[in-house]
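Format notes (please read before filing issues)

Several people have asked whether sequences and structure tokens are stored in separate files. They are not. Every record keeps both together, in the order shown below: the sequence lines, then the token lines. Line labels are part of the format and must not be stripped during preprocessing.
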Amino acid sequence: MFIRLAQQHRQFVRDLVMNLQALAIVLEKRGYPANCYTCGGEMSSASFMVSLEDNHLIRFLVSDYGITWTEMRDDRELLKLEGAEAIGQLQDLANLVKYQVQPAHSGSESNQQVSVPH
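Then the structure lines:
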């Protein structure tokens, strides 16, 4: 039973890493500074970061050791979530990005901003 659970967890982490990479690409195409770094070719961990507006940074880390969402503004940590709560916040970000046309800091005429609910 434990071997099966370990394998399922590894697959879950790989799926999450692939989705983070895709989200970073979408955010970059929309003009938000975003990146997703992975360690090694096994897709067993990743560091995802995005700047939503001036001095508003989100960092999402995933590995076999855990999952964390950290939101910072003006270099101060505002919110830190782990596990399912962190993934839920990531889903909120992905849902909000689906409906955004232009980033707030792109200089466009649109005043829409991505604001992640807490």
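For reference, the curators noted about this record: Residues 2-98 form one domain. The radius of gyration is 15 Å.
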